[in-house]
Amino acid sequence: MAPAESVPPSRQPVGLNRQLRRWLATELRAVRPVVEASAAACGAEHSRKHFTSYQHLGLLLFHGLASHPSLHQSYEHFAACRGLVAASGLGGTAGTAADDRLGVSYSHLATSNGTRPAGLLTGVVTHLLGRLRQDGLSALPAGDPLLGSLVIQDSTFLRLSLRLARWLPPLR
User: Which is it for the CA torsion 107, 105, 73, 62, positive or negative?
Assistant: First the structure.
């Protein structure tokens, strides 16, 4: 009896179970026209040939749902989710040794995070909130609890005065 083949730990889809990965692949296909329209409205595809806003959003949604501590981990694990790779159009060149690698480098993904206009998300977030309400969140009380708990993270470094932030450790 031959031993069962195992997937190396770095290539195991971590963070999302099969059902959630399938749901995300379906939602990605449904949201594609919205992303493309939003990208056209804010010029997000200007001077970009190989990494579309739709592909970028697919990776970011996976990252958010998987709750990996770093985008680099999400990038590595996304490649192991064949259905999501197919739905996003990020598959590498077939028939090569890089079959399990994405069609975009991590550095390109990281650069796109800082250079794509934030206006891209305007239409997309509105659409996704509508989908959430349609799927059963319409029974929530008045007001917008989803937007009330929405947190946007920014990686901008701000220097703070030690007089205003005494809790900061001193610089050496």
Answer: positive
pLDDT tens track for 106-118? 998 988 888 888 8
Other beta carbons within 10 angstroms of residue 149's beta carbon come to: 7
Tokens of 92: 């590498």
pLDDT exceeds 60 at position 66: yes
The residue among 46, 47, 64, 81 whose CA lies nearest residue 124 is 64
In the block, residue with structure tokens 């480098």 = 105
Residue 90 is encoded by which pair of tokens? 């990020």
How far apart are alpha carbons 20 and 23 in whole angstroms?
5
Non-local (6+) Cβ contacts of 140 within 8 A are: 133
* pTM recorded for the entire structure: 0.68
Extents of the domains making up the chain: 9-134
Q: How far is CA 89 from CA 10, 50, 95, 110, 140, in A?
A: 21, 10, 16, 18, 35
DSSP type of residue 100: T
- Whole-angstrom CA distances from 104 to 9, 10, 51, 58 are 21, 18, 7, 12
- Measure the CA–CA gap between 24 and 126, rounded to whole angstroms: 17
Which residue's structure tokens are 């708990």? Answer: 149
> Are 34 and 101 contacting, i.e. CB atoms less than 8 angstroms apart?
no
What pLDDT, in 10s, does the model give residues 135-148?
655 544 455 554 55
